[in-house]
Design goal:
The structure holds two protein chains of two kinds. Chain A is α+β, with helices and mostly antiparallel strands. Chain A has 16 helices and 17 strands. Helices cover 45% and strands 23% of the residues of chain A. In chain A, strands 2-1-5-4-3 form a five-stranded antiparallel beta sheet. In chain A, helix 7 packs antiparallel against helix 11 and helix 12 packs antiparallel against helix 14. The longest helix of chain A is centred in the middle third of the chain and has 55 residues. The relative contact order of chain A is 0.07. Chain B is of the alpha/beta class. Chain B contains five helices and five strands. In chain B, strands 2-1-3-4-5 form a five-stranded parallel beta sheet, with helices on both faces. Classes of the chains: A alpha+beta, B alpha/beta. At the A-B interface, helix 11, helix 14 and helix 15 of A face helix 1 of B.
């Protein structure tokens, strides 16, 4: 036996021996290294317990028993591929051949030459991953050229990454807002390998991550891939209960950047079986960053296209508006001077209202400022009394309201009622219910007329314009009254439509329903 | 012929109203949103609707036109500054009797409306 042992110790393969009872009787240096057990510990132990993975132990025991009973061993003296167990619990692929030899006392000893296939397996897997990575990148690049929407494209990217990496769910968050208000918002676009994962979509829908908050927030802050191998144990992962319930316990978050700035975060989730080793993470990083660039490009292109369409629409529309204003004025005007005055006056008013609505305020205009600006054509403005709550007017309402006020001012100017013998007061306040703004325009004569002025035979264009602006665009009520005491217009405007909605603070993860 | 105007730009709507009245047609109303358009169409059941594709806010002129055609049998002339945005699905749902690209001249409007009116009598 001695010379055999010294021979085995020189072998490059692991050589192990086992008696008929299944106990270790030989264990060379290569076996010590391969399985992590020193010879002293291995000798006399059960071979099955030592290196056979649990799922193969029963087969191992049955084979030995069968051979002992019948002398037949179908796996003997053949090249067998199977997995073995290292002392640290890791299972790795091996190739072995077993041959029985007579021992000293007439009993049999089974020897095995074992070669680890771990390196080959790792290389094969790396190659395979690289091939899949290449395919995914190519598919994404091709998709980018197709005429698909940003949503479709995002979906395709998520599907591709999950297919390549073996992750079960994937989602894309985008950064919205600026500076301290910036948050990651879920896009709602998901790849789900199984419909039973649906609850995680719901859990994610309600959360907004700030910089550094949660897994996506940390990927955003660090600019690096972040991985969590055990979600249920991670208290930083606020959505953990929903994910744990459906068995998604591993997560990777990947920042999406373009030009140094991070625009979003890709998130991928896997089950306990998801392999998140260095190779997979590296591949996710490569594919993810390429997709990030592609996503950003697509987003950019879509934004440009929307802008282009909006511009072409606006230009077409404003030319139509101009033509309409001209025709309306020319229908009413009796002389060329009247036409010039009416047309150019309205033109200026539309321009002014437009500027207020679009340029001066990106979101809203304060009501008192709007009133002052809209009636700025009136002389002796210090004689006009203006009273209005400091309310922010919604962008969509700025234009119609400014036009109505301008029309009233033009009217006052034309009829001279704002001059010496009368006073103009503009008063806006909320009604009793606080649901409506009541705006009153009153031109009060210092000396009342002896008799009520005649009712005009037909409704003028200006009045019609105001009526439609108030009723159609502002959803309110327009009333006018002309009598001995002067001229009075009352606008009742629903506050809900008129008032700018202050942007609600985004629901942070603390208040999110998914927090546990 | 009784006509409903669906247009959120008040200047254009009032001008259209005057033009149609000058041509001798009755304008049953001016609607600036999809909801108002549907309400007015149900109340007055016009013979024709002149519908702008783009309306203020989330309103869609195409949806209003599709409703009027399907529920009330009211045909529409679709008006838009961006007719290229009209999808095939929109055209199928609204089945417009004519398309008018903005800006259009009164002469063009005249011709289109007269055609529709003539086809109606047949």
């Amino acid at each position: 036996m001695k010379h055999l042992e010294s021979l085995f110790d020189r072998a490059l393969d692991a050589v192990v021996g086992m008696d008929e009872a299944g106990l270790v009787v030989a264990w060379n240096g290569a076996a010590e290294e391969m399985f992590g057990w020193p010879r002293a510990d291995a000798m006399g132990s059960s071979m099955g317990d030592l290196i056979v993975p649990p799922q193969h132990r029963e087969g191992h025991a049955r084979g030995l028993e069968h051979y002992n009973r019948t002398g037949e061993g179908p796996v003997l003296e053949q090249r067998v591929r199977i997995t073995a167990l290292h002392r640290d619990g890791a299972e790795f692929p091996i190739e072995l051949s077993i041959f029985p030899m007579p021992g000293g006392g007439g009993e049999r000893i089974f020897y095995a030459f074992i070669r680890s296939m771990a390196a080959e397996e790792a290389a094969r897997r790396a190659q395979d991953l690289r091939a899949r990575e290449g395919e995914a990148l190519l598919a994404v690049a091709q998709k980018l050229l197709e005429d698909v929407s940003l949503d479709e494209f995002t979906q395709f990217c998520l599907d591709s990454v999950c297919a390549v990496s073996g992750m079960e769910a994937g989602h894309f968050h985008v950064v919205r807002g600026r500076g301290p208000h910036a948050r990651l918002h879920p896009t709602g676009i998901w790849h789900l390998a199984d419909p039973r994962f649906q609850p995680v979509v719901e859990a994610t829908r309600v959360v907004r991550f700030g910089l550094g908050e949660g897994l996506p927030g940390r990927a955003w802050q660090s600019g690096q891939l972040q991985a969590l191998f055990d979600l249920p144990a991670s208290c930083q992962f606020v959505r953990r209960s929903a994910f744990e319930e459906v068995g998604l316990t591993r997560a990777v978050a990947l920042p999406v950047r373009q030009g140094g700035e991070i625009h979003g975060v890709l998130e991928f989730f896997g089950t306990l079986h998801a392999r998140l080793d260095e190779e997979v993470l590296r591949m996710l990083q490569t594919v993810g960053s390429q997709i990030g660039v592609a996503l950003h490009r697509k987003e950019h292109a879509e934004h440009r296209e929307t802008l282009r369409r909006e511009m072409s629409h606006r230009v077409g529309n404003s030319l139509s508006v101009l033509a309409s204003i001209y025709r309306s004025c020319s229908r009413e005007a009796r002389t060329k001077d009247e036409l010039d005055e009416a047309f150019l006056g309205r033109l200026v008013a539309v321009g002014q209202a437009n500027r207020m609505a679009v340029e001066d305020a990106s979101e809203s205009v304060a009501l008192p400022a709007l009133i002052k600006e809209a009636i700025s054509i009136l002389p002796e403005r210090d004689r006009i009394s203006i009273e209005a709550p400091d309310m922010a007017v919604d962008r969509d309402s700025v234009m119609p309201l400014a036009l109505v006020l301008n029309e009233l001012a033009t009217n006052a100017l034309k009829h001279g009622s704002s001059c010496e013998d009368s006073r103009l007061a503009v008063r806006a306040r909320f009604d009793g219910s606080h649901e409506n703004l009541v705006l009153e325009w009153r031109e009060h004569r210092a000396v009342p007329l002896a008799a009520p002025p005649p009712t005009p035979e037909r409704v003028g264009f200006g009045t019609k314009l105001m009526q439609h602006m108030v009723e159609g665009r502002l959803g309110g009520i327009f009333e006018r009254c002309l009598d001995e005491a002067g001229f009075r217009v009352m606008l009742m405007l629903p506050r809900e439509r008129l008032e700018a909605q202050t942007e609600l603070a985004p629901a942070t993860i603390q208040s999110g329903a998914a927090g546990s | 012929m009784r006509i409903l105007i669906v247009e959120d730009e008040v200047f254009i709507a009032l001008d259209l109203e005057m033009q149609l009245m000058d041509m001798g047609y009755e304008v049953v109303g001016i609607a600036g949103t999809k909801v108002t358009a549907i309400e007015m169409a149900c109340a007055y059941v016009p013979d024709l609707a002149l519908v702008d594709l783009h309306l203020a806010g989330p309103s869609s002129g195409a949806e209003a036109a599709a409703f009027m055609r399907a529920e009330l049998g009211v045909p529409s002339i679709i008006v838009s500054g961006s007719l290229h945005e009209l999808t095939e699905a929109d055209i199928a749902a609204t089945a417009p009797v004519a398309l008018l690209g903005k800006p259009f001249s009164p002469v063009k409007l005249h011709a289109v409306i007269r055609d529709v009116d003539a086809a109606r009598d047949r």
